[in-house]
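Weekly puzzle thread! Below is a chain. First person to post its structure in token form gets bragging rights.
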Amino acid sequence: MRDAEKKRRSRRRLLHRFIIAGGIVVLGLAAMVGVVWALTPIPDTTQKFATAQGSLIYYRDGKTVLTRQGVNRKNVSLDQVPKSVRDAVISVENRTFYQDQGVSLQGTARAMWSTVTGSQVQGGSTITQQLVRNYYSGLSQERSATRKFKEIMIALKVDRSKSKSWVLEQYLNTIYFGRGAYGIQAAAQAYFGKDVGKLTPSQGAYLAAVIQQPSRFAAPKGADLDAAKARWQAVVAAMVQTRSLDPSQAAAMTFPKLAKIKNPLSANSQKGYILAQVWAELNRRGYSDEDIQQGGLKITTTFDKSLMAAAQRAVEETLPSDTSNKVRTGLAAVDPNTGEVMAFYGGKDYGANQYDNAFSAKVQAGSTFKPYTLAAALQNGFDLNTRVNGDSPIRVASAKDPIPNAGGTSYGSIDLVEATRNSVNTAFVDLAQKVGLKKVAQAAEAAGIPADQIARQKDYPTFPLGTASVSAVQQASGFGTFAANGVHKEAHVIRSVTDAKDNTRKFTAQGVRAYSERTAADATFAMEQVVEGGTGTAARLYDRPAAGKTGTSDSASAVWFVGFTPQLSTAVNMFRDDNKTVSVPGYGALFGGSLPAQVWRAFMSEAMSGKPVMDFPGSSSYDPYYNDWNGGFNGNGWGGNGNGWGGGATNGAPQGDNTPATPAPQSSGTPPAATPDTTGSPDPTPGPDGTVPLPPNDQPIETPPPPG
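Winning reply:
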């Protein structure tokens, strides 16, 4: 009896001790949890990638998407997501979402059981836990008890401090759905080509199914397709079980048809060249690479989709199919009234060659530089009746040897219209000597040609013949100055940028008067004659007036046609990287009035189709029978006598600095050092006498091409 009592007492003592010890453990655990709770705040920063939104780049209409750049995500508010889509996600990922406190012990246990049996239908972690893991900074993706415990603590706190709607909205905008799509809106576009608000219940169920295995279900085939269909059916069944879908509706649902995969971030062909220019200009305007990749910008460019296609057709359909791949062609079209680059042709394929022919490549301008010499003269007291020496050769004091015309052809004393029409080299050398090389350089710079690109050549007598190198965009912009009545607007490719908060910055070019209206009108009149009956007849537009200038560099290593209507200025160049003569089967060695003029005409005919016909102002002073160049008009130049650059004009005669002093000889016989061009034709180095090889006169085509 006593032994039995002793045993009972012993058991009571052990139980008491066990309870005490257990209580101590529980209290200790509770204290530890309390400490961890206190030491685990909700992170005050989010993972950059969790909220990053890529930028959408549009054509000039602001509606047609050109390409995407960066993270493919577009955040949407929860009310933009159909209820059926939300129900599908909740049914399969966290059925107790609206009832739990952000953590589900049952879900954790179920996840372990599902992993063992391989029959997982619902995720182990709650939606809140998944959000915490992918949204906040400071949580790694490693599988460890420490990380899991920290995740649970933060999930509990988030559930207490944030609404369920906030949690679900962030979750749907954060998770990865495959196909490069982050967030429900990007996923709707990637899988079904529509906004999330237009998803059907069947499509929403598929996106919910994708969450489990986004890579496998992105474009399923064979066994993967069978698995995707089974997973989709499981989602539909889960929706029935949660009563978010009626059984009859579920029975009527069919597996949705998936859209073909499109890589929204790819940029090949012409789009690659566009993206490169857009990116570069955004950087210049203060937008960082991170802004572009993750800032959710809406970037509206200046490019017209139809004109971009027209530029590509003009080049690729005009050039013979057997044209050497070493021959490169660039085209750029600029709106002279805004400075916006409407279209360009950068090359055959950005994927094959990232260095574009329109913006980056700079080649000798040849005779397309002569209009700046003409503008310098007209701006400083000369007029179109001015007579210049077109004989060959011509002697210049600063040059040791006489400068000839190509072929030695002499034109005698000719006015500036004839000199321009027939692109007479010696006439422009003579004119530049009369007006001053400094003013020729100033005229080019006023039209947007960067000073550093002409620094090596501007003091040499052959400078007005186009020995400096320029790009197609620069020439299209420069000639646009004539089209815009003497006002220059800097070429640019961005119209506006709207950030993720809907703040919009618009970009326009400020107009700067480069030439007087009369200078622009007279220079344009002279260039009209080039197209009507001079070296550029192949560029003639049969429904409207056009003005322009041909250009052929030394040895025909670069050939040009640059021309304009009042609405559009376009430059076309052709060149070779190895600086050899540009030659095309069936044409032989090219000159500016041949294929470049034909490409220009093909593009402009399409670009101007349906546009109103606009006339140029014409010349109010030109008299083809006038023989005395002293009868020029007064003033209207930059600086000087009221308006001249530094000389002004009185009584119609050039004064002051119009005749430059002989350049001081250099001991090395070469111009000051400058960074050479890395592609196309480099600036030729002047010889000891200060001369460089001359480009030929541009020869006219005898018979203009037929219309059509």
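Puzzle host: Confirmed. Bonus trivia for everyone else. Confidence is low (pLDDT under 50) at residues 627-697, 699-708.
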